[in-house]
Specification:
Strand order of the largest sheet: 1-2-3-5-4-6-7-10-11-12-13
Distance between the termini: 46 Å
Strand content: 25-35%
Shape: globular
Number of strands: 27
Helix content: 10-25%
């Protein structure tokens, strides 16, 4: 398997259409000889053609297929390895030079006797047609390519999907169609509810990443017919049939899956990855949860070896004791990139106790008992640095909080009929300093967990809501009447954190983002919410008849 040091890696620009004998600069194994078939046309049932690249071992035989599909460009250089000047905090991303961004690395998979297939979905690269991201039409195309790959002379008939972000979204979709040759999937951090997880957070439109991402597609493929996602966000502010059509039927998924989620990609990949794992009907499914950076974790050697073990079992039939792997492994974060791994049988964790900490507006504290006296605390939603309130408590013993949280508030607005609530959960050390965690791929001053809610979207789906996870319908607006005090429940996204004795948890309620993105100006690589409905004074009521509280997932470690 070790490469030949006398070989020279083939420059990407020297790889031509058709069959190429190439040398790949494998990070793990040194320079490796491979065969790359570039720009292979795969016929679709409607007469269209999708183009794929195939990278396979330079020897006879049949091999399982590792496949990924997106619209970023199958020949795209691994941009994420070249972004250090823009985002110097991305971390280590060791890949071969022919690895398209967020994709399986041929430099790792091919030496391990896999064929890597990269699919250019409609409207991207040479694949002509309309580009409609994250929907049924893409899934049908992807399913046809999987069936094609399973029948090629170099294939053993077993195909596994793999990849990050968009490449995970397309996996949720195609797996819901259960193509015959799809035998296993590795969705690594990818949303599946486009409304709740990227276009609107708590009903508040995202003016950052969602629009930046769409504009990126336009810039990549200016000659393609691309779905107007910005127009959809403007014209469909509620969760209507348009957005329902952007949701894969997760319960239809039956294929074995190794799912990776992160506490860190809240506002994009966190929620959907957990929902994919929870809602899938697969009998064989595993969940890995980390609290670090997405791409760095995906390409880490430990992760690659776990992916390989999973695919070896399901695509090669190797008895490697994969079935003994704990169903859930998760990192409990203590500090930035410091924590420890625990194991469980399911998620949400079975040994969870939902524990209420009541807000006290007189002392700005959190308490296990509801205050007897009513208090009203207010903030000015339009004045920077005065647009928030904070409640906190010190833990008297080591406490692990892992899972969703729910913040129930009683609120009113003095001057308007709606409110946008931004919620942050923070950890303070014994010195009363905030403990920061990774957020997205490049932000280093993140918090424990995040939640959002537009108050007019407070209606709950009673069937889907759970004590620790309210589920909002987002199907209608219920505006505030003058001086009306209403209860709201804010979904706070999953996290896993250890609070040691003497450390504090802090709940922030704010009229704007609690943590600002620190990306390069003009690069909206994180969510933003600059089109709020906020105006004037916001009020929160605690104590007495107002049971404002944070419900936290305390883990029993006995």
């Amino acid at each position: 398997m070790l490469g030949n040091s006398k070989l020279t890696a083939t420059p990407i620009e020297d790889i031509k259409e058709g069959t190429n004998h190439i040398v790949v600069d494998s990070i793990q194994y040194g320079n490796q000889e491979m065969i790359m078939e570039k720009d292979i046309a795969v016929p679709m049932s409607d007469g269209a053609e999708l183009y794929v690249n195939v990278i396979r071992p330079n020897k006879e035989g049949t091999f399982p297929v590792v496949i990924s599909a997106d619209t970023y460009g199958k020949d795209n250089k691994p941009k994420i390895t070249n972004m250090g000047a823009i985002w110097p905090t991305l971390g280590a991303l060791p890949t071969s030079s022919i690895t398209p961004e967020e994709s399986p690395d041929p430099g790792f998979w091919v030496p391990n006797d896999y064929v890597v297939v990269k699919v250019a979905l409609r409207g991207s690269s040479k694949s002509k047609g309309s580009l409609y991201p994250w929907g049924l039409s893409e899934a049908k195309d992807y399913a046809e390519v999987i069936e094609w790959a399973g029948q090629q002379p170099w294939s053993n008939g077993n195909v596994g999907t793999n990849g990050v972000s968009y490449l995970a979204v397309t996996q949720w979709w195609v797996a819901s169609l259960n193509p015959t040759h799809l035998k296993a999937m590795i969705p690594w951090e990818g949303l599946n509810d486009m409304y709740r997880e990227v276009a609107f957070h708590g009903g508040i439109p995202d003016t950052g990443f969602y629009r930046f991402w769409y504009e990126g597609l336009i810039n990549r493929w200016p000659d393609s017919d691309i779905e107007d996602l910005k127009g959809a966000q403007k014209n469909h502010p509620l969760f209507d049939d348009y957005w329902k059509g952007k949701q894969a039927n997760l319960s239809a998924i039956k294929v074995p899956m190794f799912v990776c989620a992160s506490w860190s990609t809240q506002g994009l990949h966190n929620r959907g990855t957990f929902e994919g794992f929870k809602q899938a009907s697969s009998k064989d499914k595993w969940l890995k949860i980390h609290g670090r950076k997405e791409w760095e974790t995906y390409y880490a050697r430990e992760s690659l070896e776990q992916q390989k073990d999973f695919f070896d079992y399901y695509l090669k039939g190797i008895d490697n004791d994969w079935q003994d792997t704990p169903k859930v492994s998760y990192e409990v974060r203590g500090k930035f990139y410091q924590g420890y791994t625990k194991y469980a049988t399911d998620f949400p964790l079975p040994n969870t106790t939902a524990t209420a900490l009541y807000l006290d507006g007189q002392t700005m504290s959190l308490n296990t008992e509801k205050p007897q006296d009513t208090a009203k605390v207010s903030y000015d939603s339009e004045v920077e640095n005065k647009d928030e309130v904070r409640f906190s408590t010190v833990f008297d013993q080591d406490t692990e909080l892992t899972g969703n949280m729910k913040l129930k508030l009683w609120v009113s607005a003095d001057e308007t009929d709606d409110m946008d609530l931004f919620v942050g959960i923070k950890k303070l050390n014994r010195q009363d300093e905030e403990v920061h965690f990774p957020d997205f791929n490049h932000i280093e001053d993140g918090q424990v967990a995040t939640g959002w809610l537009r108050v007019s979207h407070r209606e709950l789906d009673q069937d889907k809501s759970k004590p620790l996870q309210p589920w909002h319908t987002h199907e209608s607006e219920d505006k505030l009447n003058k001086e009306e005090i209403v209860p709201v429940e804010v979904e706070i996204l999953p996290s896993g954190t250890l609070f040691k004795q003497g450390e504090s948890i802090q709940v922030v309620v704010k009229a704007s983002e609690v943590v600002k993105g620190n990306s390069t100006p003009g690069l909206k690589t994180r969510y933003e919410h600059n089109e709020t409905v906020n105006k004037g004074i916001h009020n929160i009521y605690t104590g007495g008849v107002y049971d404002s509280h944070i419900l936290v997932p305390v883990i029993d470690n006995n």
